[in-house]
Specification:
Elements (H helix, E strand, L loop, with lengths): L10 H10 L9 H32 L14 E4 L5 E5 L14 H11 L11 H14 L9 H10 L6 H17 L2 H11 L9 H9 L12 H8 L14 H17 L5 H8 L14 H4 L1 H13 L4 H4 L5 E4 L3 H13 L14 E6 L6 E5 L4 H4 L16 H11 L8 E3 L21 E3 H6 L3 H11 L1 H10 L25 H7 L1 H4 L3 E3 L4 E5 L5 E4 L4 E3 L3 H16 L14 E8 L12 E9 L4 E7 L15 H16 L14 E2 L7 E8 L4 E7 L7 E8 H6 L13 E6 L3 E4 L7 E9 L6 E12 L7 E6 L24 E2 L5 E2 L25 E2 L24
Parallel strand pairs: 1-3, 15-22
Antiparallel strand pairs: 1-2, 3-9, 4-5, 4-14, 6-7, 8-11, 9-10, 12-13, 13-14, 16-17, 17-20, 18-19, 18-21, 21-22, 22-23, 23-26, 24-25
Helix pairs in contact: 2-6, 3-9, 3-10, 5-6, 5-7, 9-10, 10-11, 15-24, 17-19, 17-20, 17-23
Organism: Alicyclobacillus mengziensis
Pfam family, one: Transpeptidase
GO biological process, one term: proteolysis
Length: about 850
């Protein structure tokens, strides 16, 4: 056996081995692969069968009311807060046109654009759905449409506009049901009679009448190819493609529709190109009377509110409903009158009226009492600036800085805030609106006169997270970028806010710290009497009641003395805050006087309101700007609306004031002032029973500046005293005075542990008329509450004989002056015995006399307190 060669393997064996391996040595198994493929194919077929079976079952189980597709001739009725009929929305059945009257060009344009397989396919566009599903899954949210005309009709009639996967699936199921019950011709007619086409129009008949003045029920053949293409392009985004508001976007969309028609063979390419060259040829035409003629400014807000709160606005336009709202007819009427005919709006730029919006809310319930998002009734349809986001400017300050700082005890209204412009880091260098402002101010003063540097300093002090948490709880949303910079302290927000948000955010200030959820629609009842929607109230505490009271007191100063004096109404408690956004979105720049946006957010004891005025356009549009004082004008608009809304009502003030211990009449007494001409300073001294137990805040008002109109408020207005110091001592020296001016000093005792005011302040005025020993004169004044319900007495004033020096109203002599003989005011305290502090003056050289302050109660000797 040795020497024999090994037997060669047979060919078949070698072939088998070669088939089992590749060059890399890995075996191949064709039969196994085939088996796997067959298994996968069988599984796919089985899964498809199961899917079809489940889908069919779901279609059968899906509730479907075909009657809802039948046009109604009964209008929807809107009720006000008192349950009275306020307006009606015409039923679409009154504006429906049959399929035979729908122009062929319009049918073709819609099919080519919305669902080009409509005539040849079922109600489910599988290819479109798969394409949309891929994009949706990739993006993580529902981004694509992929809807057939049947599905779009289902969404209009049965569903909402909210993009969710469950809604999309229901839309598909309902689309199948519609396709089973109705012919394609009926489906297309129902769709074209129900679809929203902008400017408040429902259906092609209203849209053709609105944009072109063509009545399709009478002259269907009058609609041109270009006009049909424009209408067919609107369903996708009726506001964005509104030809009256955005003609260029509408033109682009129309031309795309024409291109679609050529692509699918409805018109030739040459016809498409020729038609593209035609102008839009649109103008606004009136529609038959209903809510759009009765209350056009409110009508659009109602529809937008519905869409933003999970109620399909098109449901309201289908007819036959009863919609119960919170609208107060008198408030809404006031808003509409002022926005349409008011005289306090900023002057037009290039002839275009400045846009505006107003929203008013009941602070105790959150019910919207009135709202409008436009000034021009013709422009109201499809345009609602009440929901238009814009930067809030300084109107954010009470919510983002002052509210949280007061609430957590960081400051009191009399706390000193730094107001010296400087770099806060990273090159951020905010400035105040007016130059030469005090470098240190009280929080009260800073808010009243909208000092920007002080606001930024305060946000830096409490920390951005603290301010943002408070504001977000109050309904204001910030982006991650917003929270990286201090510019948000004065309104530098990416997404901004809208008037509805701001009205709700200010609610808590007016409602003892509690915010009620804003709402307009309380409930909706269908033709069968079934309640198909109900609002469920929700309230939350934003701040303590004491914080709300303190902030109200501070914002009353905005209206009484500061930047919002246009909102003041005699006898009424009014509080609020102004805000402006300048052209370059900063407080410095190439156009510091150009203002794009202005706000006033304010409240009375009965209502909270937000006024928004301006253009929220890109900064590259310099034509859209305002000059002057538009935020002050917003406060005037607020006042105009409230005066009309409250006409005939008894004036009301806010129920409570900042907690003050008034039981100590000797907290500050015997206030005296001395002018030291050599040192160039003013020496204040006083007595107090609380010496060593309390601290004293010293404030000063420049009386001459207030009289000359150079204060921060409007010319000639009063001024809020600027805090110039705080001390535990009974003396204070003010060296920052100038000859020729008059100053009013106020000293207030406070509990330094909690910032609570103690007793009443004492006030004295000093006038510096020249130089030398006999340069000054002073006047002391007091104010207090009389007993037995006595309010304030009449002022008293008496002249002393001229002398060679200056005397104060206590009869004390300084700088070699003689004593002045003064008497206080006298009043009849309503039959009760009043006690209080009077006032008087002493005269110096030249026998000049200043007027005394006010006294209360019976006649007293003048004591400068």
């Amino acid at each position: 056996m040795t020497g024999r060669k090994p037997a060669k393997p047979s060919k078949s064996v070698a072939s088998s081995q070669s088939m089992r391996s590749t060059k890399s040595g890995k075996p191949q198994q064709p039969k196994t692969f085939t088996r796997y493929f067959i298994r996968i194919l069988l599984l796919f077929v089985a899964a498809t069968a199961v899917f079809i079976g489940v889908f069919t079952a779901l279609v059968e189980l899906t509730p479907f009311d075909a009657a809802k597709l039948t046009p109604s001739n009964t209008p929807t009725v809107i009720y006000d807060k008192y349950g009275h009929q306020y307006a009606t929305i015409a039923a679409p059945g009154g504006s429906d046109i049959p399929y035979s009257d729908i122009p062929q060009n319009l049918q073709n344009a819609v099919v080519a654009t919305e669902d080009h397989t409509f005539w040849n396919s079922s109600s489910v566009d599988i290819k479109g759905i798969l394409r949309a599903a891929f994009v949706d899954l990739w993006s993580g949210h529902l981004a694509q449409g992929g809807s057939t005309i049947q599905e779009q009709l289902a969404k209009i009639v049965y569903l909402t506009d909210k993009k969710t996967f469950s809604r999309k699936f229901n839309q598909i199921l309902l689309g199948v049901q519609i396709n089973r019950y109705f012919s394609k011709q009926d489906i297309l007619a129902m769709y074209l009679n129900r679809v929203y086409l902008g400017e408040g129009t429902t259906g092609v008949k209203e849209a053709a009448l609105k944009y072109f003045g063509i009545d399709l029920s009478k002259n269907p053949n009058q609609l041109t190819l270009a006009q049909a293409a424009l209408l067919a392009g609107l369903p996708q985004a009726p506001s964005a493609y509104d030809p009256l508001q955005h003609p260029q976007a509408a033109m682009t969309r129309r031309n795309q529709v024409l291109q679609n028609m050529a692509k699918y063979g409805y018109i030739t390419e040459a016809k498409a190109q020729a038609t593209k060259r035609l102008p839009l040829g649109v103008s606004s035409h009136p529609l038959p009377g209903d809510i759009w003629t009765q209350h056009p400014l409110f009508a659009q807000f109602l529809l937008d509110y519905a869409d933003k709160n999970g109620i399909n606005s098109q449901l309201l336009t289908q007819g036959g409903l009863k919609v119960y709202t919170t609208i107060d007819p008198q408030v809404e009427s006031a808003i509409e009158q002022v926005l349409q005919y008011g005289t306090h709006f900023a002057a037009p730029v290039n002839g275009e009226p400045v846009p505006a919006a107003a929203v008013f809310v009941d602070p105790s319930t959150g019910g919207i009492l009135g709202a409008a998002g436009a000034r021009d009734p013709a422009a109201a349809r499809g345009l609602d600036r009440a929901y238009e986001n814009a930067q809030p400017g300084s109107s954010i300050k009470p919510i983002l800085e002052y509210g949280p700082a007061i609430d957590n005890g960081t400051i009191t209204p009399n706390s000193i805030l730094g107001n010296q412009p400087h770099d806060f880091g990273g090159g951020y260098f905010p400035h105040n609106d007016a130059p030469n402002q005090p470098t240190q101010v009280t929080a009260r003063y800073a808010l009243a006169y909208s000092e920007n540097v002080a606001a930024v300093s305060l946000l830096q002090k409490i920390g951005i997270p603290t301010g943002v948490r408070f504001a977000e709880e109050d309904g204001i949303q910030f982006t991650a970028q917003d929270q990286t910079h201090l510019g948000i302290a004065i309104g530098g927000m990416q997404n901004g806010v809208n008037a509805v948000q701001m009205a709700q955010a200010y609610e808590a200030f007016d409602n003892q710290g509690i915010q009620q959820q804003e709402h307009l629609i309380r409930r909706i009842v269908n033709t069968s009497g079934q309640e198909i929607y109900a609002f469920h109230p929700a309230a939350k505490r934003i701040m303590s009641s004491q914080t709300a009271t303190t902030m109200t007191s501070m914002m009353e100063d905005v209206v009484n003395y500061g930047t919002g004096t246009g909102a003041a109404m005699p006898g009424w408690g009014v509080a609020g805050k102004t805000g402006t956004v300048q052209y370059d979105e900063g407080l410095t720049g190439s156009h510091p006087t150009w203002i794009r946006i202005a706000w006033f957010d304010g409240y009375t004891p009965n209502m909270v309101g937000s006024i928004y005025m301006g253009w929220n356009y890109d900064d590259s549009s310099p034509a859209y700007h305002m000059t002057g004082a538009p935020s002050y004008q917003c406060s005037q608009i607020f006042g105009d609306i409230v005066r009309l809304a409250e006409q005939g009502q008894t004036p009301q003030t806010f129920q409570s004031t900042v907690s003050v211990n008034t039981n100590d009449p000797n907290a500050v007494k015997n206030l005296q002032v001395t002018w030291n001409s050599t040192a160039g300073g003013v020496q204040l001294s006083w007595k107090s029973d609380l010496a060593g137990q309390a601290e004293f805040i010293i404030s000063r008002a420049d009386v001459a500046s207030a009289q000359s109109g150079t204060a921060a408020g409007p010319s000639g207005s009063a001024t809020v005293p600027v805090q110039i110091g705080q001390t535990p001592n009974l003396t204070f020296t003010d060296s920052s005075v100038a000859v020729g001016n008059s100053y009013t000093y106020t000293v207030q005792a406070i509990d330094s542990s909690n910032g609570q005011l103690i007793g009443q302040p004492a006030t004295i005025t000093l006038s510096i008329h020249g130089s030398g020993q006999n340069a000054a004169k002073c006047a002391g004044s007091g104010a207090g509450a009389g007993a037995g319900g006595v309010s304030n007495g009449t002022s008293g004033a008496a002249n002393s004989a001229g002398g060679t020096g200056q005397t104060d109203n206590l009869g004390n002599t300084f700088d070699n002056g003689t004593t002045g003989n003064t008497n206080g005011g006298s009043s009849n305290g309503g039959g009760a015995t009043g006690t209080g502090r009077g006032s008087g003056v002493g005269s110096g050289v030249g026998n000049t006399t200043s007027t005394g302050g006010s006294g209360t109660g019976s006649t007293t000797n003048g004591t400068g307190q």
